[in-house]
Amino acid sequence: MELGMIGLGKMGLNMTTRLVRGGHRVVGFARSSESVQKAIKNGAEGASSLAEVIEKLKPPRRVWLMVPAGNITSQVIDQSAKLLSASDIIIDGGNSYYKDTIRHASDLDTNGIDFLDCGTSGGIWGLTEGYSLMIGGKAAIVEKLRPIFETLAPSAVTGWGRVGPHGSGHFVKMVHNGIEYGMMESLAEGFSIMKSKKEFGFDLSEISRIWQHGSVVRSWLLDLAAAALKTDPNLDDIQPWVADSGEGRWTVFESIDLDIPAPVITLALQMRLASRDDKNFSARVLAALRNQFGGHTIRKNE
Question: What CA dihedral angle connects 139, 95, 223 and 42, to 10 degrees?
């Protein structure tokens, strides 16, 4: 099977490579010519524009998008729609907001262009381990692209599937990332508590290695923590600044709209926001209040 891959960041490039190794023909395009050259080196065909990608594909054409969520995704979909024909297929494999995805599907349907939203998880490890694919859209279209999903997933029968109609794939991926926020925060807090227990002299790298086997908290995230701690036991080279992709926020918003309590995910998101505040004015207010009502000691900047 052949398809165009639009967007050759780390994940897009690795997905392209996995598809090529699986026997698929891939035509890749990115704004960076360097990324296109990497895709060519790994067995894909290159293109200098979106139009050239579509020109090189045989109808019915399949175009997979791996570009940032938001305006860029909308622009690429709009540009693609002008170049594609009825029965062609667009797959959005990025982290788009599911309400935008529903709108994209409706707009494309008016032109007879089929659409799938595919929440994609696996990061840089997907090349060797395979990707978890959460797919939204028409069942018949998912079936048409089965060979692609089977190649990208960990195996032909595991790690992928249709989860519902248009928008559902990105909704499930959104919740997936919200859960990930909570799991990561819990691991981070646990290791921080152990690091602060100075009298025991804990070797966090060794503890993470012990937990990797037999423990109920063993997980891929724990494996990644173990790898990081082995390389840099005190994480001295890493600044305490944590970004969020947006999906954690969307998950919290949905929990509010649905009246479903999600305190762990919400607090995990708030902790990421707190990590970026060098001034941390709210903490200063708390310290000042404790000093005012109880005479508690405050630490002043020198």
Answer: 80
The total of other beta-carbon atoms located within 10 Å of residue 40's CB is 14
Q: What angle do CA 289, 191, 246 make, to 5 degrees?
A: 75
Residue-wise pLDDT for 59-114, tens only, equals 999 999 999 999 999 999 999 999 999 999 999 999 999 999 999 999 999 999 99
Nearest by Cα to 109 from 81, 147, 131, 73? 81
- The Cα–Cα gap between 64 and 101 comes to 14
CA distance 47 to 245: 29
Give the tokens for residue 143: 């079936």
Q: How far is residue 284 from each of residues 278, 281, 301, measured CA to CA in Å?
A: 11, 5, 11
Q: Which residue from 294, 47, 257, 65 is spatially nearest to 171, judged by alpha carbons?
A: 257
Distance CA 115, CA 205 (A): 45
The catalytic residue positions are 173, 180
